[in-house]
Give the backbone structure.
Amino acid sequence: MNALSELRDLLGPKGFSDDPDTMAPWLTDWRGRYTGRSSALVSPANVEEVAAVIRIASRHRLSLIPQGGNSGMVAGATPDSSGEQIILSLRRMDAIADIDPASGLVRCEAGVILQKLHAAVDAKGRRFPLTLGGKGSATVGGLISTNAGGTQVLRHGTMRNLVAGLQAVLPDGSIFDGMAPLRKDNRGYDLKQLLIGAEGTIGIITAAVLRTVPALIDRCVVWAGVDSPTQAYTLLLFMQGQGRDRLEGFEILPQRALDAVTKHIAGTRPPLDSVHRWHVLMEFVQDDDSQSAPAELTTVLLEKAIDAGLLENATLASSEAQAEAFWKIRDSIAEAERAEGPALQHDISVPVADMARFIEDESPVIEARWPGTVTVAFGHLGDGNIHFHVKAPKGVDTASWYAGEGKTITSHVYDRVCDYGGSLSAEHGIGQAKIAEFERLTDPARLNALRGIKRALDPLGIMNPGKLVPLA
C-alpha cells in the first residue's frame, strides 16, 4: 500500500483530500508571492491521528507542511513546487477544553482561531492579551510556531511569554506531553521553548496551555499627531514613565499609511482634522479596581505632553466603537498597502532607542538610491519592531522587480538592520521568504546550533523542509 492510500484509510473523507479544488486555497501564501503544489491535504482530528500521520510520512520519507490559518507573512506554511509534499492542517483540532478563571489558564487545541479564543476567554471574565490584524484566521498553533507578537507585546510580551504548557508530535511520531503548567522544571533542555518559534521544523504543536490576564474594566484609546519618529519615541518614554504599567499599546504610522487605509478600507476616516507627518496610536488600560479611570489618567498625561511639546494634536476615543475604529486603521495597514501595489515587506527589530533614528536616517537613503521607491514604516515602536515596507516604483513589472532590484533593496535593508544590532525577523518568522538572507547574515554559532537541533530531532528532514533552518 502506498503512503496516500494509508493516509486515506487512516483519516477517512473528512481528514484526507487529494482534490485539486479543495487544496487550491491552501497552496498560496497570504501575500500571494509563493505558490506550491501538494499531493494531499490531511486534516487529523486528534493528536493520535497526527502521530499516525507522521509515522506514515516517516516510513515513506514524505515531507509534511504544517498549516494553521495560512495567514503567515513569510510563506512558512506553503509547500514547494515538487507536488510531493503533504499539507498537514490542524484546523479540525479546534476544541477549547478548559478555561480556569482562578488560575487564569486556558487549555485548547492548536487549530483554535484567535478570535474564537478571545471570545471564549472573555465570556469567563478573562482576557488573552495577544491580538493582531489576522485574528479571524490565525490559529493558536501557528501563533506559537512563529512566536507571534502583535500590538500588546509592550505590556504582555510575545507568544513565548503566554505559553504555560505544550503538546506536540515529534518527527518520529512520539507525543511530547509538556502540558503541565509548571513554574519550575529543571529536567534539562526545555523542549517547550525549542518548539515555540520553530515553525514546525522539529515537531507539530497540537495543543497548549495559555496564560490569560484579568479582563479590562476600561480602556482609553488615543490618536495623536507628531512631527517625527524621534518625537514619537520621546512621547513613548514620557508615557511609559508617567503611565507606568497602564500603557498597553504604542503604535506609530506615517501619514502615507493613513492615506492608504482611508483610500482602500471602507468605513475608515482620519481620526484628526489636522494633517501630521506621523501618527501615534496609544492605549491605556484599567484591569484593577484600585486603578484610576484610564480616560482620567490619559487626559492628565496628554495635557502634560502637549505643554512639553511632545505632540502636535490628539484626540481620545469617545466610545468603544470609536476606539475600535482607531484600531481598525492600524490593523488594516497591511491590507491597504497590498491594495496600493507591489512592495517589499520587512519585519525588523532594532533596540528600541535606535528605531526612530533607523527610520529617519535609512528611509531617505533608500528612496534616493532607488528612485521611485517609497518607504512606509509602521508598527510597534514601543518594543522596537517596525514593519518597514518599500513600495515599488510605478509601472514596474512586479515579478522582475521582486527578483532583481527588490532583492538588492531587501539585502540593503537587512544589512543596515544588522549594523544597528537588530533582527531581520521580529515576529513573522523566517519561513522560505527570508531563509537565504537569514543564512547570509546569521553568525556561525547560531546557525550551527540550529542545524544541529534540526538534524538531531528530524534526521529524515521531513518536517517543513526549506523553512527556517538553512541546511548546508
